[in-house]
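For reproducibility, we list the full input for the D-malate complex.
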Amino acid sequence: MRRTAIALLAVTAAGPAFAQAYPTKPITLIVPFAAGGPTDLLARILGERMSKELGQQIIVENVTGAAGTIAMTKLSRSTPDGYTIGIGHLGTNVVNGVIYTKLGFDLIGDLEPIARLPANPMLIVSSNQVPAKTLKELVAYLKANQVSGGTAGMGSGSHIGALAFNAATGATYQLVPYRGTGPAMQDLISNQIQVMVDQSSNSLPQAQGGKIRAYAVTSAKRSPAMPDIPTAAEAGYPMEVSIWNGLWAPKGTPKAIVDKLNAAAVAAMQDPAVRKRMEELGQDLPTVEEMKPAAFAAFQKAEFAKWKPIIEKAGVKIE
Ligand code: MLT
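The corresponding predicted structure, in tokenized form, follows.
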């Protein structure tokens, strides 16, 4: 009998007392990308604050590679006892389900949604050495030159951004895969790569610090965190893409534990210091209603229905 089934039996047999006492030891939070990137940053801010609510430490474990599919596979096979949870996003928990034909687990069927988390609009950025000051100039430069750009792998947020950028501008760049946009950012700053369409929480501080150049944000309206940066539409190329995040547990994790984790995530997101930090990074915060497990599960399914035809039309598939 599969290990998870035995573990599930054990957890179920333990019953409400188990959930009541939960948590009695530290919780592992699987992060599908490298340390220092946007998903890792969100996990650490949230994890630290949730641990205060839960009275146990939340330990971040970066499990990188294949645009998050390795991490989500590990999560789906973890013991459903509440001591292993994972953070993911539009790419890792929706788009990868369309791109990777042999995932070996079901992104919807084998994972339990815990809470919807903030979303990052994306910034179109370049190294300071790129001879362009506006988005139109950047597009012209990319059409006239062979340029390399960073992604965190096929299906990642920065890959989704590259696809949206190509669809809106007709310009492309050579995709250089990294284990996350944290390490990709280091290479962008040092001009090893020249462009990236990246989540605001990772790029905005670097752009504000003058280390890279930001051309536009991929949201419908300008962001209060970056009022000087035009929207892509204002800059001449309408495109809207935002990378929403979420928390999941292995399927079979008792509802009482999922609800406890959700309550801790909601409390963390209601903390004024946490909200201020996330808003400064340009993130859009979900409502308490939207964060609820059932609402988040319905949202994830709706996103699958929305993105499946888009990704299939783009012809991106990994056998
Ligand atoms: C990261 O944390 O590195 C990002 O979420 C990667 C991506 O999806 O672009």
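The pocket of D-malate is lined by residues 33, 37-40, 91, 152, 156-158, 180-182 (CB under 6 Å). The two ends are 29 Å apart (CA to CA). Both points were considered when choosing residues for closer inspection.
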